[in-house]
Write a structure and sequence with these properties.
This protein is α+β, with helices and mostly antiparallel strands. The chain folds into five domains: about 5-65, Helix hairpin bin (Helix Hairpins); about 90-315, 2-Layer Sandwich (D-amino Acid Aminotransferase, Chain A, domain 1); about 320-395, Nucleic acid-binding proteins (OB fold (Dihydrolipoamide Acetyltransferase, E2P), Beta Barrel), CATH 2.40.50; about 435-575, 5' to 3' exonuclease, C-terminal subdomain (DNA polymerase, domain 1), CATH 1.10.150.20; about 595-665, BRCT domain (Rossmann fold). The chain is built from 24 helices and 21 strands. Strands 12, 13, 14, 15, 16 and 17 form a six-stranded antiparallel β-sheet that branches. The chain has a five-stranded mixed β-sheet with strand order 2-11-10-3-9. The longest helix is centred in the first third of the chain and has 24 residues, at about 5-30. It is globular. The two termini are about 50 Å apart. About 30% of the residues are buried. The structure holds 2-(butylsulfanyl)adenosine.
Length: about 675
Amino acid sequence: MSLSREEAKEKIEKLKKEIRFHEYKYYVENAPVISDFEFDKLLKELERLESIYPEFITPDSPTQRIGEQPIEGFESVEHKNPMLSLQNAYSFEELFDFDAKVKKNTGISSVEYVTELKIDGLSIALIYENGILSRGITRGDGKRGDDVTHNVKTIRSIPLRIDDMRRVEVRGEVFLSKEAFEKINREKELKGEPLFANPRNAAAGTMRLLDPKEVARRGLDIFVYYIFINDTEPFDTHYENLKFLKALGFKVNPNSRLNKNINEVINFCKEWEPKREELDYDVDGIVVKVNDINLQKKLGATSKFPKWAIAYKFPPKQVRTRIKDIIVQVGRTGAITPVAVLEPVEVAGSTVSRATLHNEDEIRRKDIRIGDWVWLVKSGDVIPKITGVIKERRTGDEKEFKMPEYCPSCGAKLYKPEGEAIWRCPNVSCPAKLKGSILHFVSRDAMNIEGMGESLVQQLLDKKMLKDIADIYYLDPEKIEKLERMGKKSTENLMREIENSKKNELYRLIYGLGIRLVGEYTAKLLASHFKSLDSLMKVGKEELTEINEIGDKVAESIVVFFKEERNLKVIDKLRKAGLNFYQEEVQTSSDKLQNLQFVFTGELNKYSRSEAKKIVESMGGRVSSSVSKKTDYVVVGKNPGSKFEKAKSLGVKIIDEKEFLKLIGEEK
Ligand code: IVH
């Protein structure tokens, strides 16, 4: 079907309207009228037409929510009207005091208040000009915040256009639902990344991402609670302003209420304290606002908060329980964490039977003993935390906790790096660490053994076919072929990959061993310095720290690693399997880039900016952040910035990643 230009334009307008309507139904009202499939079909059709007629793409088109490219950073911008914070009340008495002050300062004997749920997220200002969302700014310090327009546009409950042509500023709270938060953490856990402690941190972390595609995937949401039009509120009461926001198409929390007096406010707080558990987002209190805007103006504000509003904070969910035992857990990286085993208790809607005690020092500081009665809170509604010991309940039978000397999982002697609080297991083959160690060993930047994915490794562990990383080189192809999702062909490929990896450069092996604090870059330094694994194994701390970039902590970690009997056994097995233990001479003559000046722009595939910088410097070159006539090479990666243009205009030599890798001798 081919359309005329005019027809296409009309069709595009019609589609935009339709999609906008369905976005509203789905994301604001939570009441979709068509299926996701039908919705996607509309969006795809719009994308298709816009790609044929790009001149009809407008900034408020639903296709423009997700920017194509990551941004380089956030620009700091000033708030036209400062974004204030709120004073807190922790008891109903403080709410009565607040009410009394309001009455005294306005001379009015009966004051109406609007109560709203206090959403636990981050506040944001949205600016609309000529009906189009032009900017999203974080609160920052209240006076200046970061321009996060790219990210707020991905939030589908935020309209990209409104039917009001004036300068409209809307404020609200961006948050993640508990469900979205748990999904993000599940994914992080799979990747072995540190988890977010609560939905608020996750929302704030998401807002700081540079890639709008990833932001869109995480599913931020918003409730708005404030509107300025040309710098003042459009209606005489806050409650009417909220209704107006809703009429404009914004998502306003449906649980707000207009109260005749402070007693009704207090009832609202009492009602919501237990009820908030039923919501799919975190609420940490109730915001109480004077309804009459003229009264608000009369009351004014301090430099930090308005005098016409207050936040009633819910009491922390604290419960008492008893510590039955203190055990230790071995993490994937070998960190040993003491954990309190508790008499199970209900707190904030879930049963808690364990709480981390972080480390030995923390236990001493809080004087926590086995058998103690303790206070437990769920901080940020997620991680249970012991806040204190109820010493009055001690009977004298409580026992002090002693850190074990040996790893509970493998029996290796634990060690604690100087100046650190955490004990560690030094054994690479410790079963508790093994899966992570193996996945690291075979990963692309280490031994690069393709085909050894997570599910295969798990099967090999379950079948006890891998007890340490060296076992990879002693696998029996006949047994592998019989595993789930494996066949003759894939087994052959895998065996070839394993065989080929024996010839890898030395640094890959050093990195792959998973020595704590030894990343790819340090592994390269060590390989080019010591030339063989055997000399590295014999080296002492002093000799290591003589290398410019190796500090005390890294040196100690290396020495401890090669002292551990179990590691030596694994290395011996690797040697017997025929792995390359030597650095070939050709690589990294460290004056290769002597006196050459580099500038990087855009992303490289293989190295981060700081790794690339270290490499250049280790070869005698320098890296500068701006292009000038003195620049010898501008290295251009994906999505280069303005430096690329500048290099062209100055006639500086421009090279791509491949050429850069050649220069540093990593590609031929
Ligand atoms: S009104 C000048 N209403 O709580 C009035 N704030 O502790 C400023 N918040 O910075 C805020 N829900 O991030 C308001 N319904 C609500 C809110 C709310 C959450 C946040 C907001 C503010 C913080 C103050």
